[in-house]
Design goal:
Layout lengths: L1 E2 L10 E5 L9 H4 L3 E6 L5 E10 L4 E3 L1 H7 L5 H4 L4 E6 L2
Parallel strand pairs: 2-4
Antiparallel strand pairs: 1-4, 2-5, 3-4, 3-6
GO molecular function, one term: RNA nuclease activity
Protein name: Barwin domain-containing protein
Keywords: Disulfide bond
């Protein structure tokens, strides 16, 4: 994981993305620093995060606080994975 150039502020938790998550034509420069609304499939919980890092795969990595907030039943803590919905939103 490496910085994509966005600065982190305390208003939004951090997220790292894999460019493949958004499709083959995802432009890192244009999307770094944008916010995502991420919602748990299992519950009605959601968080807004700012993309500040890039990954070399197709995943979305949330900071621990955001991950735990979305882990409704505690099962993802063992697996380290959640199934989520996401969309870009203004910060």
């Amino acid at each position: 994981m490496f910085s994509c150039g966005a600065s982190h502020d305390e208003d939004y938790p951090r997220a790292a993305f894999g460019a493949g998550l958004f499709g083959h034509n995802f432009n890192v420069t244009n999307n770094c620093g944008r916010c995502l609304k991420v919602a748990s499939i299992l519950g009605r919980r959601e968080v807004k995060v700012r993309i500040v890092h890039e990954r070399n795969d197709h995943g979305l990595e949330l900071d621990l606080h955001s991950f735990n907030r979305l882990d409704v039943d505690g099962g993802a803590d063992v697996e380290g994975q959640l199934t989520v919905r996401y969309r870009f939103e203004s910060c």
